[in-house]
Design goal:
The chain has about 110 residues and is of the alpha+beta class. The protein is built from two helices and three strands, in the order H-E-E-E-H. About 35% of the residues lie in helices and about 15% in strands. It is flat and about 50 Å long.
Length: about 110
Amino acid sequence: MKLGPIGTAPPPGATPEGAAPAAAVPRHSPGIATPGAAPTAAQLQGVVDRLNEALQALPSDVKLEFDPQARETVVRVVDRRSNAVIGQIPSQDALELARALNRVQGLLVSARA
């Protein structure tokens, strides 16, 4: 694929020279939920574990966790020396709200059954 002037997009369907066409690229890996299906907690934990391993090689203080009660992935920036949380996404308040909403949702489903 030849590059055009800055600010112009390549023609639709163009691929870099030597790259596989999009149809040849697998859409998902084994052990990961298929498109359209919700991943299981074990699958999410596996992805989080692999990302944490990759982040260990970097000089960063980023930790990923999956909060099963909130059903959210949590990203924390941690001071390596003190292990204090410097920042977190989503916030602790947002996680507590998500946990509470999931509990209420569970109670509503139990009441209907």
